[in-house]
């Protein structure tokens, strides 16, 4: 599992570690790891010896890391030049090391000709707001060519704690971060600026608290969560999920939600709604009921909302499902129709799965505010509705009311931006709830499998939601093998 910590926590850990080490040891560790990563990038298109490296150097320790790494590259035969954004505040030890190794300090990158690597060491993890005008011009001038850009700890101009990008920022091909991940490296929009992220171990682990601010599950974590039937299993022990979805106008939403549930391992699916004929035509194993959801039979979890529309029958279905004493997942139209006080008063778990627009409506803010501050939005929604919230998007976030770390899903892909994809995710996550997974785990595993399935189904080509549903078993197999 990948863990990410706030700037305040990282700085406290660094101070504690620095107090136990010889002076300058922590910076030398970081610089050594940065130099190795720079060398790896250079070797992909050539070699370190004879390469041309441009350092963009700010003040403070981030600039010091960059200068010491530049010195290491210069000792290996690279031609290293540095542009200082604040010459009077440059790290003195790093600057001396660079010059002693044969590196040069220049006023501007414009006259240097082609370079093989640009290293962004302008601002560190404490930066707020976008790049200042002078730094923006420097970055623009330095990155006009085709040289890859490597960011030091975090791309300059993005915010480490929130993932927000409030102005111009460096777009890196790769980022080398030290000690632990920072939330902004895992959350869009900032994550889009980071490129491939490489973590350098500088010995910070023992100084960090056990509870991170953010975590991202990996294959082994998800495999440990997924329910596997035993010899004693029957359809009820595997979990029966109820689906209240679809309408005469949107029968496909019912089909896709049921598809996600069936492919997600449910022992059985009970469907309640006007899309019964379409569901049975596609999935004859579904148990359909024409009446109210509460009359459909025993279930271990409900999914309500996809394609319901906004008529009186839709309102009645949402109200009926929220009255059930089992876990309930609310999606799409259900999010508009649910009563907030009813959700907060529920004693059984509730999972809400909005996209940015739906989240904005629930919070009473502009969609742009949610998209710019996804971490704050998902936390606020979880607290406001006393629920587990899965905020869909380019990086899907899962938060639970309380002090548990927010989870970020690492398998998302832009191919999921297609009609009906969310319906499939709802059914899949509902099946995991019915199997007995704790809501945060069900949402996390569901999002992970959903992303893997989309990658498998698309293989770099356009994909439809029905294809994503069909690829879920293969994604499940990928995780568990």
Automatic annotation (TrEMBL):
Residues 218-479 form the YjeF C-terminal domain. It comes from the Bacteria. AMP binds at residues 392-396, 422. K(+) binds at residues 62, 120, 156. (6S)-NADPHX binds at residues 61-65, 124-130, 153, 253, 307, 355, 423. Binds 1 potassium ion per subunit. Keywords: ATP-binding, Isomerase, Lyase, Metal-binding, Multifunctional enzyme, NAD, NADP, Nucleotide-binding, Potassium. It catalyses: (6S)-NADHX + ADP = AMP + phosphate + NADH + H(+); (6S)-NADPHX + ADP = AMP + phosphate + NADPH + H(+); (6R)-NADHX = (6S)-NADHX; (6R)-NADPHX = (6S)-NADPHX. Its cofactor is Mg(2+); K(+). Its EC number is 4.2.1.136, 5.1.99.6. The keyword Nucleotidyltransferase does not apply. Residues 10-210 form the YjeF N-terminal domain. The keyword Phosphoprotein does not apply. Belongs to the NnrD/CARKD family. NCBIfam families: yjeF_cterm, yjeF_nterm. Homotetramer. Catalyzes the epimerization of the S- and R-forms of NAD(P)HX, a damaged form of NAD(P)H that is a result of enzymatic or heat-dependent hydration. This is a prerequisite for the S-specific NAD(P)H-hydrate dehydratase to allow the repair of both epimers of NAD(P)HX. Bifunctional enzyme that catalyzes the epimerization of the S- and R-forms of NAD(P)HX and the dehydration of the S-form of NAD(P)HX at the expense of ADP, which is converted to AMP. This allows the repair of both epimers of NAD(P)HX, a damaged form of NAD(P)H that is a result of enzymatic or heat-dependent hydration. This is Bifunctional NAD(P)H-hydrate repair enzyme. It comes from Streptomyces salyersiae. The gene is nnrD.
